[in-house]
Amino acid sequence: MKLTRLKRYLKEKEVKHPSVIRPIRKVARVVSRTPPTYPRLLRREIDAVTDVLHSPFWNMNSGGSLVHEKLEEEFAAYVGTRYAVAVNSGGMAIQMVLRALGLKPGDEVIHQVDTCVANAFAVMAAGATPIFADINTDNFLLSPESTEACISPQTKVLMPIHMWGYPENLDWIIGLAKKHNLFIIEDACLAFGAETKGRKVGSNADVGVFSFGSLKPIQAGEGGMISTNNEALAKELRVLRNWGDTTIEYGIRDQKVLSWNGRISEIVAAVALEQVRGYPKYFEMIQELAASLIDRLAGIDGIEVIMPRSANVKPAYSQLTVKLNTKIMGVSKTELMERLRARGIGVWHANFEPINSLTFFRDGHWRDWVLRGDLDRVEENYKHKFATSNHVYEDIGLGFTKNNFLSKARTNLLIKELKNARAH
User: Fold this and answer.
1) What is the model's pTM?
2) What residues make up the domain containing 410?
């Protein structure tokens, strides 16, 4: 806190005049009551960026022993894969992976319908077709029945999404993928550090994708990462992120596949590296703070935390999601959200609005971009009424943002307002 440091500095310099000290003390007390901000510095990000700016190497294509290379090395070690490939966003990571896996126009990728539209748009931007599956009410993640019903001869990829940092149940997904010879992409953009059965997300399938952008567990403004144990795939991804230039990886200047500029800057990589280095300690702190809030939520009838603590599961808690019983609560989800927001409490949905309800899909604009495959079947999928996803979004799914459990004062306020809402 800069004001606190200034106060210490003045004390050390024996600046004692009341006209100087009193205003600083007053402002420092106010600032100290401000809710913890997010994102936050986890290590020496400012110094690391300064080091890059003082160097001649701001771009990943110049120089040696670059920051993004160290980031890839330490990221892979933390996640538990052999390779990691740094890119400029999580959405770009999805596009590059689909291209590297060989998907072509008309090939289909299945993911839940109530995730961020970035998933569907990234699939389409790579030339493939997103197909939507419904969720279940147990954990607000993919429904096995709905997912299997979506599989067609055009299906090439299953993309489970670890929504809000809650690990998806990959056992049945891996079994389904083997049955139909499909690739699996773990979307771990909101789940860096999360674990299931002792393994971190992003290390359990063919490939994992991560983001360092808005609301993500680690922050660098933008940026992303791809994790894999497949050496050939990692090599192809490094080619794809640089307009397909094969010079660095194969020693021949050539372009063989349609590609993008997916490069991460050394400046962003410097921030991300320090975030990764400081994250293990921060992750454990988040576990403790979230557990405290979960314990207190257990005392409020009508609120069920979606994923209770388990020795086999450690969520990343990008937000804490709950299921409402509005009859017991005596208040609708909409009214409860309005009351909480009026008190300055960060609250959102436990999912996104179903993607097919957005104008691009609802009004058929997707037809300008999806030109191959069984278009009638695709249209049927996009017009489907995803009952569970809609029910979760409209009626029962609620998410408490991370700042609600980053301090005792914010947790106390949330619990108080939830009890007051129920009392009314």
Assistant:
1) 0.90
2) 278-352+390-423
